[in-house]
Amino acid sequence: MTGERLRLMAVHAHPDDESSKGAATTAKYAAEGVDVLVVSCTGGERGDVLNPQHPAVEGGLDGMREYRRHEMAAAASALGVQHRWLGFVDSGLPEGDPLPPLPEGCFALVPLEEAAAPLVQLVREFRPHVITTYDPTGGYPHPDHIMCHRVSAEAFAAAGDPERYRGLGEPWAPSKLYYNHGFSLARMRAVHDAIVAAGRESPFGDWLDSRQAREVPEREVTTRIECSAYFPQRDDALRAHATQIDPDGFFFAVPRELEVAQWPTEEYELAVSHVPVTLPEDDLFAGLRGDATA
Ligand SMILES: [Zn+2]
């Protein structure tokens, strides 16, 4: 692999997920000369305007899709990464008891092989060494996040197989698959405790309570990427999603110097590796850099 540029593909469900999960990692690798491609499975069409300071977006799903295309372009520019859409339609977050059925034609209802095909094609075109996605629970119980996991795992497993997804490009087998774990209970609690200890009001109390109430099992963290130098780029990317991110809200509630001191890393779980590794790791490309694989 000596002399070849390393390539990282980060697969996400909606525009803005790339800025809230692993954003500083992608900015860091891009700055270090890695080719980084962020993939958004859906256009985020069913997202509400979550920023109380932002005016309503007119035009229904088409209007929101168009709006979020511009936000996403600005976020990709802030992170210094390339970006592609898979073109599926946001499933929305079903709410109520009982839950309403998912809207017809949405991403989460597309049969797996059909949903994974454009990602397989993109893997064969971009030829990533490493792919990041969500764990099988989605990391967050949104049907598109679970579907994002499923298509990523399928593309990772199938893109290198010449017998599968024929006609979608030359086979390419990525070497490592990771799950994003930036919202670990450990991180949120450490930051919360530090905010309280500093005599400030923490915005994470409710988050911690509901997380504990849902009894989400903590998944294993195998890999920590020190990326605090790129928190400013992450913050710029978050702010680019102006319909979604309140600049005075949750994501900006932690003083940056406190965050850097308490938690300067982003976390991942190595799900599959086709190269020998030693855990824990501090690099998504561990085992893939030149003589490490000799
Ligand atoms: Zn999302």
From TrEMBL:
The keyword Hydrolase applies. GO terms for molecular function: hydrolase activity, acting on carbon-nitrogen (but not peptide) bonds, in linear amides; zinc ion binding. Pfam families: PIG-L (PF02585). It is an enzyme of class 3 (hydrolase). Binds 1 zinc ion per subunit. Its EC number is 3.5.1.115. Its cofactor is Zn(2+). Zn(2+) binds at H14, D17, H145. Keywords: Hydrolase, Metal-binding, Zinc. One of its GO terms (biological process) is mycothiol-dependent detoxification. It catalyses: mycothiol S-conjugate + H2O = an N-acetyl-L-cysteine-S-conjugate + 1D-myo-inositol 2-amino-2-deoxy-alpha-D-glucopyranoside. InterPro entries: GlcNAc_PI_deacetylase-related, LmbE-like_dom_sf, Mca. HAMAP family: Mca. Belongs to the MshB deacetylase family. Mca subfamily. A mycothiol (MSH, N-acetylcysteinyl-glucosaminyl-inositol) S-conjugate amidase, it recycles conjugated MSH to the N-acetyl cysteine conjugate (AcCys S-conjugate, a mercapturic acid) and the MSH precursor. Involved in MSH-dependent detoxification of a number of alkylating agents and antibiotics. Monomer. This is Mycothiol S-conjugate amidase. The lineage of its organism: Bacteria, Bacillati, Actinomycetota, Actinomycetes, Micrococcales.
